[in-house]
């Protein structure tokens, strides 16, 4: 692994990733792994904080996500790729950090406060629902990743987990209430100093810093304080014009096949006021087309303007001046998407064909992660006079 800072990040295993996940987090991970010592973790325990009732798809989701990570360019020779549940020290450290974490800090967690607000709004509905029903709380930005924490902000979809069942769980579960402590443990276990996050995850990193500071002030210096790394990421629109999210069902998967890719692009949201090719369009967000055109947003990502007229800037001018229609514009976008999507699928399939490859990578990653985590826990136990 490279030197530099120690980077820790994770993703909740939600299955196949979409373009929002790639441009919002994964692309950045690949770049970070070239310059820093990186730990990338499938935070399967975090998944349980909101998705504990249905674990049947968990293993498939972990594998599908790992294949996307690898096909996108995460190289196990350059970073440690592992599952959180393979390193029991995450749980031990979370337990011990929980001893020094005031509950008021967790109650002030914006995600928790959002949840309580949503619960207050839905309480009447909850009491009337059937025992097995669940409430979806779309505004709950539980995320993931963040330290995990890359919560993938795009994964508001994650939020539509079964957060609150109707029976006896009207204030959420202890695991969810305490997940910022588990996030802190994830980060601090590896001496993570640089944590790639989205803006909405900043409070969680601040909480991890507070927990580290409090632990150090009581037991002596053990933990380095992590710093957030805010990397500007393009907002990836889904096919309906909203932010791309699994929960909205508007995603384009990284491994999308050619037919479904074509169908999604040809059916994507554009500018409702541009009926004829000669109508002037509004490709970017503006009062006339508040979300902006989904197709144009993808042109900006995949249609480089280095070839002058063929680039996204030329498309923008043609659209605004009524010199191109949406069908032609979509077909043009497809020509720019076909190559990258084909390359991704081929790489993914070749990894998938290598029997046991993902499992080997996880095993090796867990071995390397455990070695670091065990050393940290020795220091923690000594500091707390537990050993
Ligand atoms: S011409 Fe292209 S950029 Fe303009 S609204 Fe249609 S699809 Fe969007």
- Using DSSP, what is the number of strands? 9
Estimate the mean pLDDT confidence.
86
Backbone structural class = mainly alpha
Q: Summarize the main sheet.
A: 3 strands, parallel
Q: Supply the CATH class of the largest domain.
A: Alpha Beta
Helical coverage, percent range: 40-55%
* CATH topology value of the largest domain: Rossmann fold
How do the strands line up in the largest sheet?
A: 1-2-3
In this entry the ligands are: iron/sulfur cluster
User: How would the global form be characterised?
Assistant: globular
Q: Report the sheet-strand fraction.
A: 5-15%
The CATH architecture of the largest domain comes to 3-Layer(aba) Sandwich
What is the fourth-level CATH superfamily of the largest domain? Answer: HUPs
N to C succession of SSEs: EHEHHEHHHEEEHEHHEHEHHHHH
Count of discrete structural domains: 2
